[in-house]
Amino acid sequence: MEQTIKERVLRVLKEKKMNVNRASKLLGIPQRTLNRQVNENGKVGMELVYSLLNAFADVSPAWLVLGQGDMLQDTDAVRTLSGAAPFYSNLPVAAGQKELFDPALEKPTGYISMPNWAAQFYFPVSGTSMEPEIHSGDIVGVNRVESLREIDPDKIYMIVTNESRMIKRCHSDENDDSIMWCVSPNYPAFKIKKNDICAMFHVVNRIERL
């Protein structure tokens, strides 16, 4: 039974594209403990089972514990669960991507529930412009900014324009309120017109890659 549960746990981690390091941070389980349970001879503990079900609300408890039914639950039912935010594994954020991101029109890979961090959705980041604060491959959670007046230069944002999606710090131009400056550690600052911004999202959480 324990070996069967272990196989299902490994299948969940593979489905969610989670290595042991990233999963330990998401689940709040020490990396050494998690590695012993899933990759060595340790037994899978109920803490790990409960943590997986809490983090990925679309994983069926009956399937994970008993092997009954399908691994993933009906996503329409999952959407009604409080505290579960959609996770998009195939929507990296990088400059030069023409497609605009509308969460309502996209099908999530799964769902992540992190009680202490209320995010509207999660996704992996590509690109190195915000290193060492955010690495390529990190997963970030974001919340939509309703007004550009709310922008804080000390916070990090995802900016969506007609031509790109990017993660930067931002501040308004001192002399021209119609201009927004985009700032990152590894590239020169550049300006964009506020009218060109389709949406902005505040980065509220980060799951660090290996």
Blueprint (SSEs and pairs):
Blueprint: H1 2-15, H2 20-27, H3 31-39, H4 46-55, H5 61-66, H6 75-78, E1 85-87, E2 110-112, E3 121-124, E4 139-144, E5 156-161, E6 165-172, E7 179-184, E8 187-193, E9 197-207
End-to-end separation: 30 Å
Portion of residues in beta strands equals 25-35%
Kindly state the percentage of residues in helix.
10-25%
Gyration radius (Cα, Å) is: 19 Å
Helix count equals 6
Q: How many independent structural domains?
A: 2
Strand order of the largest sheet: 3-4-9-5-6-7-8
The total count of strands amounts to 9
Outline the biggest β-sheet.
7 strands, antiparallel
Order of helices and strands, N to C?
HHHHHHEEEEEEEEE
Written overview of the protein:
The protein is of the alpha+beta class and about 210 residues long. It has two domains: about 1-80, 434 Repressor (Amino-terminal Domain), CATH 1.10.260.40; about 85-205, Ribbon (Umud Fragment, subunit A). It has helices at about 1-15, 20-25, 30-40, 45-55, 60-65, 75-80; strands at about 85, 110, 120-125, 140-145, 155-160, 165-170, 180-185, 185-195, 195-205. The strands form two sheets. A seven-stranded antiparallel sheet has the order 3-4-9-5-6-7-8. A hairpin with a 3-residue loop joins strand 5 (about 155-160) and strand 6. The longest helix has 14 residues, at about 1-15. It is elongated, with a radius of gyration of 19 Å. It starts with a helix and ends with a strand. Residues about 90-100 have low confidence and may be disordered.
